[in-house]
What does this fold into?
Amino acid sequence: MLGIFDSGIGGLSVLKVLKEKMPQIDVVYFGDIKNAPYGIKTQEELKKLTAKGVEILLKNGAVNILSACNSISTFMILDDLKELSEKSFGIVEMINPTVEQFAKKWVSGAHQNKIMIFATPATIESKTYQNNFKKEGIEIETFAIPDLAGAIEFGSEEKEIEEIVDRAVSKSLEKDFETALLCCTHYPFVKDKFEKAFAKNNKKISIFNPAEAVVNSAIKKFNLNVPSSLRASERSGEAWQSRKNGKIKFLISQDSPTFRQKVKELFNEFEYSIEVI
Ligand code: DGL
It folds into this structure.
């Protein structure tokens, strides 16, 4: 089973893309709402929370983990994952697939626009995006938004969220860029507000959600289109293709009406359960 990890609802934007591509897959999802937002915590605190989250997912049947949280992805690319758990597990996180996709486009000449990363302070402070892009010869700009993920997570009013995005976008435009990467999984839920804010400033900026690249990477790395749980005779394709929708087990560390509402909105057609642990 695939485990997905985020501080709260952000990872649902990645799970949505995964379920559109692979509805058959069974998922256990952990949202650490009690400790959200992650993006304003120290690296030390986040490493501990990452180890705890990994443990919860492994205990609940996950074999592979997709970190649908940029703020902890730094710890998911440690050389020694034993620092997180004694048990072994496969991992796909947000940063490597995103950088790889842009590096490929860069080398081929298909995309050489200046990139701005919008993310939480923790993601920017870890410097992992900056360093990984640099290794590919790409210099990027970054902009941290401390209060946006929390406002989305805890259901702030539309107007308040719009003001946060407006302020961030106007300030970010002091730098020069043509492509904006939404490198916090909460942000795609307010992509329209980013679009509006750029338009207000008369800027044509293309906005990119890394979820697609990350999900493709997980499908490939974990062989998700050929599940090992099926008998060899069934794995030929037809049985798997016609298998009905997989189940989703949501585990949350604190109850949240916003989380329940978002799950209902996005995954109503799937069989799912929500458990507060
Ligand atoms: N959605 C997460 C991320 O991608 C965490 C946001 C937060 O909890 O601050 O960074």
